[in-house]
């Protein structure tokens, strides 16, 4: 068996000009190499300690999604390496994506949910609605034009809109309009809000209207 060559540890003396803070940086590095060398010295391989399986999974908002994984044990972690639109269109990933998952004794991984793909839900009151322009004020919202949403209310919605499915028309980062279909949203044809007066708190919750392909890395150690 090949021998592990001598390993020289990094020392604060190697960085005399940064000696005050460098030790806090190099200590975990040295600890990692100590652990790795000890494992290899006992005949353990990198693959045995850091093995992983990478799979692509398509999701459309319907959960759970069951996927067969060639694993002999329950994974320690399931990470999302990449997220793209399954139809090949561009998708700007703006935040970290995490999946909720479970694993059964038959070696099957189940994706129970995903966080970070869809924009966050938005809440507004009647005062945020301008009937003359059909605009709704949602400061720093994350919606894009064509996004499918569900509109709901704890009270009464402004006249011209009702609880149900709509599609977003993005005016800018602060304003949106609602369209009855995705085609109307892309065309800029908004639903006519005839009066802002309603009552209660209103919520716009994003929904999946396309498939996303997640590249999952399943680590067993």
The figure for the number of domains is: 3
- Mean pLDDT score: 82
The proportion of residues forming helix, as a percent range, comes to: 10-25%
What class do helices, strands and sheet pairing give?
alpha+beta
Approximate strand percentage:
25-35%
- Record field, number of beta strands: 13
Query: How far apart are the termini?
Result: 24 Å
For the biggest β-sheet, the strand order reads 6-12-9-10-11-8-7
The run of helices and strands is: HHEEEEEEEEEEEHEE
The helix tally amounts to 3
Question: Can you tell me the residue ranges where pLDDT is under 50 for at least 5 consecutive residues?
Answer: none
Mass-distribution shape: elongated
Rg is 26 Å
Please summarize the sheet with the most strands: 7 strands, antiparallel
Descriptive keywords:
seven-stranded antiparallel beta sheet; single chain; 3 domains; 221 residues; elongated; alpha+beta; 3 helices
């Amino acid at each position: 068996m090949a021998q592990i060559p001598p390993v020289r540890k990094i020392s604060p003396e190697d960085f005399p000009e940064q000696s005050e803070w460098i030790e806090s940086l190099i200590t975990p590095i040295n600890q990692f190499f100590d652990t790795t060398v000890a494992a290899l010295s006992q005949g353990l391989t990198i693959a045995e300690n850091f093995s992983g399986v990478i799979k692509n999974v398509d999701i459309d908002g319907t959960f759970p999604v069951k996927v067969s994984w060639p694993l002999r044990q329950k994974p320690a972690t399931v990470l999302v390496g990449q997220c793209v639109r399954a139809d090949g269109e561009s998708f700007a990933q703006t935040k970290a994506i995490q999946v909720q998952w479970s694993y059964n004794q038959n070696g099957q991984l189940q994706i129970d949910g995903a966080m970070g793909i869809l924009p966050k839900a938005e809440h507004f009151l009647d005062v945020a609605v301008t009937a003359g322009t059909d605009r709704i004020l949602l400061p720093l919202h994350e919606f894009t034009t064509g996004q499918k949403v569900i509109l709901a209310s704890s009270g009464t919605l402004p006249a011209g809109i009702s609880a149900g499915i709509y599609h977003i028309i993005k005016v800018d980062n602060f304003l949106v309009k609602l369209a009855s279909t995705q085609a109307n949203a892309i065309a800029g044809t908004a639903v006519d809000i005839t009066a802002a007066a309603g009552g209660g708190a209103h919520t716009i919750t994003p929904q999946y209207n396309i498939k996303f392909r997640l590249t999952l890395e399943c680590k067993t150690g």
